[in-house]
Structures are given as C-alpha cells and as structure tokens.
TrEMBL record:
Domain (Immunoglobulin I-set) ranges: 21-51
Record lineage: Eukaryota, Metazoa, Ecdysozoa, Arthropoda, Hexapoda
Pfam families cross-referenced by the UniProt entry: I-set
Coiled-coil regions listed in the entry: none
Annotated SUPFAM superfamilies: Immunoglobulin
Highest taxon, organism lineage: Eukaryota
Native organism: Diaphorina citri
InterPro entries in the cross-refs: Ig-like_dom_sf (IPR036179), Ig-like_fold (IPR013783), Ig_I-set (IPR013098)
Protein's name according to its UniProt entry: Opioid-binding protein/cell adhesion molecule-like
Amino acid sequence: TKHTVIQTRDPLDKWKLSLILTIRNVSDKDLGIYTCESTNSLGKTTANVRVYEITGIELEQYNQAKKKASVINTNVTSQN
C-alpha cells in the first residue's frame, strides 16, 4: 500500500501512544498537510504535519531505487 500507519504504546506510560506514517514512492501528490486526530471520553485533540519537498539535496544512489520511502514521526500530547 502507498500509506501505512503503525501504532505503538509506551510500555512505561499506558496513556502515551505513538503513530508512525510511512509514505512509499513519494511524489508531488503526497505533499501537503496530514492531520492526526485523537478522540476519547475527555475530548478531541489534533496535530498537523506538513510534508514538503526539500530542494538542493543530492540523493544517494540507493535512495533513488523503487523502494524509497519517507517516514514522518509526530507526537500528540494532551494535558487534561
């Protein structure tokens, strides 16, 4: 699949949850804002991540292969 989301829970803090979004074969269509939303009995919180092109960087040869992927890691924290 193009997009994969993996969810992990912190073993030391049962209330802390992390999500990792992987975008495979990144193209211009994948650029933009991605929103992570969490809802529970206490309410709702959101966090945004912007995916943008970085210019002026020479990619190493192995990154130009078909299996290239981008990984974005963000944390959403609510203080209630």
